[in-house]
């Protein structure tokens, strides 16, 4: 055991599963805020990789400020069209010159954004339905990071914190997986399901309401009957899916704002509401664990787009979640674990000012029984802090 | 007493003042994120007022997406200059036509932004140091709000929630007032203090560290000696100020990133770090109560720029804070009150799905002793929900 | 013969071929100004075709204002890269709604621009090396044109004029064909030749200097030797080519600004100087006949991007050139024909206020000998004025 | 006499005054194209002056690419408003760093544009009715000019030419002065006259039609009667004014597109058609002498915004006009003088490859009689080539 300042203590409040009301939200990858998160993080990864390839270390950058201005669209059965394109402005800082070598930061950003959008949004014509613009200025020259050199652990340059928890509550699991599986396996079979799927879970006692808003893709809908079928399909799929995660009573609501009499339905041409009236920006949606969880402490920090080498807020948000998950997996008897990491300016980031683990144990297990195990597990994970950076750059960690 | 669904219960965890570590942050009005918040809210107010003046009710709009792209500056003793202007893009939705009448939403936005910036930033030349651009699209036509007509209470159009607390902890009071008073009364006497003042408070047990980053204004600094004097002046002022709010031991740190040997100091031409490398956007900084408080539940919702008539997230965030404050003022024996409001889609916003008040009482007071009083006070405040809208439009409520 | 007001008269000055100094210039399709012309005209054609397809007539639009902001590039032997992308802003007016039908003018513009650029610029990565943005506002509502309906001839809505001539002088032919053939057949075999080929011809007496600036494509050049070979190849090809058009003495200069000692050469990554420092806009380069001919009267009117149904300046510039060419072909004895068309506001555009043909005849032919023939030929061509519109929309006429 | 290559010869064609049809146009300072010209030239002057002040010489820049995107307005009797602001993008190249000193080129550009617009457009709210944006990239590093150092004459870096003439024909004088005096002395007394005054003169034989389009300012018009009065006032003023320049028969037409029955009139809020649907850009309007003269040879070169030290096209266009004027003033017997200057790459710009003066003499004067005088006068003017640069920087020469 090192001398890392790790506290393990009982959670003073109720476990979230025991609270009377629980609210959980997830904005799907096609939500305008998530589009920005996704683009920002893709740009970040592409820049980091370029720096590694060209100069052997990650230089200073931050691309956590993408802004999306919604377009106007005229969706229609069997296929409508975008009338006024979406406008996406990638904003941030990047090192454009290093020891005489110039780095094409803006071109890299454009290409990374295009690749990401092309891959994730089959119904969005990049360059036709969406304009991608970029403004990457230069930051202060002395902010050059040093990742990749001899595995040194960077120093924290800010007082910041991260917070994560595990395991996910049932409602959280349902919300998270509803979006993932709908836009994943389900959309593959049912292309009518667009990428903009917003899920709200509300548990009151033992009843869970799951409200799903799915942007249906117009070219796969011929008329109102098909639309209703698509809605019903989603409802059934999600109802079924929910039983994988809970024995509680679940009610699923899909596209509740529809008005069939007025034929006012949630139809889109591109699979995202960004095509019509919904603006977006980075850091306004899901937290690093993919959820918005008002019942839990959350960090305000935008994770997507930040430099994964030295941005302590990003690293600690991802790390706290990862540590919580792996500790909850490894150590038996944990019902709920919340981990908070607070940085110490000027100290290596693997030595946080304090790492606070708050535990709710399972019946019959005392915090004291597993305290040491948790302490050790947290310690071991902290020791591998640069692993997080590597995983982020390689795209193995989602940030939203 | 109405049949509003108001719960009053004991807080299950520790009062924040009793927790071992407390972190509080405030980004001053000149922080790039706050500049965006401030502009977005000014634009919102101007639009709301224009709608009221012209059509007698507030029409649909949302202007919660301002993006700031940092400039480049060359600050210098006795006055430097901005090399590349800051770029500010106001983004959102607005109703531009109503019953045949056209509303100059974009021009209104530009003028409101300019007025706000001129008023708040004496060292920033609007149009010379900062470019203000605007893209206000139109949203869905059926989202027209009806404020001002017969005082009707709008229906909640979303499942959303707001959370507020009172009273502020000592650390919160110090952090909040440090920024307010530095950029207020102190800056009036000491124009060297710019508008970008970031305050971080960290309490560990009974020791509070207050870390202040002040953008000093170059035209009021002739050399390093004067700069050091300015820093020392701030340190003393804040140390002094802190004693108004606490008996705890307080250490104040000012501009800790300075390196006097390298003459690398926090000097700016415009009083904000937006002039050099710090981008910003709405909703990324302070919550509606002006603070970032990781020890408390917080809403992710961006409050600034949202429509105060029907945006339930905005209303409930402001309202929960206002209610918490007034209840904590009125009812004796409250040590900490946290109020959470959850909306009910389709119900009037003064009838939340649930209003949860979590209490920590003072020694010798039981929750049961004041439960009814709290219930009544919350009920009365909820009844005046439209008062919040009015106050927001009139600029009597700060949103960041 | 109709009563069109056609004047045929002798040219009062010298034929251009007889003037002592003649200057002719052509900016190739890859010149920044020409890129703008080409995009503007593509957008125009796409809009016109869309209007015809959807509402059966061409509605009001004008897209003659594309602005290109140059990028920054780092060309290198065997392939360099664009560092900061080119920015292209398509500006203009378009009808976006017609009898309840919405027209996606901006999306059409983006797609037309992309298609044009993809087709013409094999070394330019659209969306990666160049950002295409668009701002198409709406014009005055009463400017709706009516092309396609019963073949009516539109009325002139402005006092405007067009001017054309035929045949091309020898120098003009050389300049024109040098660019066309270099970027055409020659580039096909020699991809090292980029699209930005600027040709200046200067004839003094019987000596012609042809100065060619060719943007060489870096990925097809391995070193300075290959570059020199490429330059020499162009020189030989153009020298050879010139003999097809003249018996005069021709000297060809290629990339004269190169400095081999400094290895400062005209190498580009994308085949156009827009990648590095050369901005461009519509109407600043070639006239409608593809040339800049200071020895001839020229119209200031930007032809590219204008509405070909009712923009009298565009129509008359193209028409005067076409008429001059066909008359010079049909009627024997013409050494030089210059035709000027002046519109009459409120009259059908096939009835110009005046059509002035200025003739220089061949030796032994008097103007009087062919006056009637010319008059008739001009008259017949004018009768088919709407044919020009059709050809423009179908892309059979070049505008720059 | 030097050995400058100056040719003096008789004009081979007819003097413009003797041609049957003459067309002359002037776009007033408030025309969208002229707004761009004016801004571009202001920016150019401000940059040149800054370079002189800071480094003692004019560095490389070119700001000849301003693009204006029209707004939308709702003019109304007694004062309307701009609905969607005009967008003005200043584009060009500038040196931003020189020997370690940074030059705030973009901020200078913004401020110069604002100052120009504020000064010239009393009814346009800069920052409210018009957004001014800027993109000044850097050009090639080796293009640094050297003005101000020892009075050296720069070398021509391009084959370019300029063309000017004097004196102005009667129609030219009328057109030029109509705009100048209307927007000058007349507008001072009659603020109803906006800055966007477009004048077209058409002379056929001895009849001159002057067609004036005046953007009337709505806040100075209460109803249709006042509007008609304003129109009639302009008509009378111009009719009167014309007699200062000609004895020919003149008919003046004002705002001919008005339709009083429909109350469709030329009313603006800002005094320029840029507020509603008319885009603009640099170099698309008046030539360097302030006129568009299809009866004369014209240069395609955009003059406004170009670097006056080394941009040979700009210098020669201004210089040829200035020389023509001063020679026509000094030398008796000149009825029409056209001067063309052609540069010689690599030679000092005061030694053009050729200076061609084409003369039409007054009755009784032979070209031979004044040939030497003209030669000498041209020679003397050329010797003072750098004087043009100075005058341009000081704003003593208009470029559009």
UniProtKB/TrEMBL annotation, chains A, B, C, D:
GO molecular function terms noted in the UniProt entry: ATP binding; magnesium ion binding; methionine adenosyltransferase activity
Gene3D superfamilies: 3.30.300.10, S-adenosylmethionine synthetase, C-terminal domain
Pathway entry: Amino-acid biosynthesis; S-adenosyl-L-methionine biosynthesis; S-adenosyl-L-methionine from L-methionine: step 1/1
Catalytic activity: L-methionine + ATP + H2O = S-adenosyl-L-methionine + phosphate + diphosphate
This enzyme's EC code(s): 2.5.1.6
Annotated GO biological process: one-carbon metabolic process; S-adenosylmethionine biosynthetic process
Residues annotated as binding ATP: 137-142
Cofactor(s) required for function per UniProt: Mg(2+)
Sorted UniProt keywords: ATP-binding, Magnesium, Nucleotide-binding, One-carbon metabolism, Transferase
Biological role stated in the UniProt entry: Catalyzes the formation of S-adenosylmethionine from methionine and ATP.
UniProt similarity note: Belongs to the AdoMet synthase 2 family.
Protein name: S-adenosylmethionine synthase
Organism, scientific name: Haloarcula nitratireducens
Gene coding for it: mat
